[in-house]
């Protein structure tokens, strides 16, 4: 990924707010172009669908292969929501090895992180792996993704 030009979208709910802010700071320090899609302030009553949808909508509407990171307490809600939008392939992951496989084989363009089940350091390594691992472009993976993409839009 060309980290200076491609924008990485990131959002969380209150459960992932602290982790999101940590990742924004660390990824910017490493030269990534980050767009923080919220929340900007902590609100214990906010709802993850509002923020995960912002990231998923932006990925779904981009032509240049946008990438996003969504965070909530267990990562499930944000990943389920993100995967409802056309063109979004979101993987819930909690370690770099799993994320590498998801990028390499499934060309995921959105990473869901479970703030309650991952340390900041592991989350950072997982995010970096997500951003730096290319899709393999192997024929078998391309064939499988085509089948996935042809299952219909929801």
From TrEMBL:
Entries under SUPFAM superfamilies matching the protein: Ribose/Galactose isomerase RpiB/AlsB
Record-level Gene Ontology MF annotations: ribose-5-phosphate isomerase activity
Enzyme Commission number(s) of this protein: 5.3.1.6
GO BP: any one term: pentose-phosphate shunt, non-oxidative branch
Keywords: Isomerase
InterPro entries: RpiB_LacA_LacB, RpiB_LacA_LacB_sf
Family per record: Belongs to the LacAB/RpiB family.
Name of the protein in its database record: Ribose-5-phosphate isomerase
Annotated organism of origin: candidate division WWE3 bacterium CG08_land_8_20_14_0_20_41_10
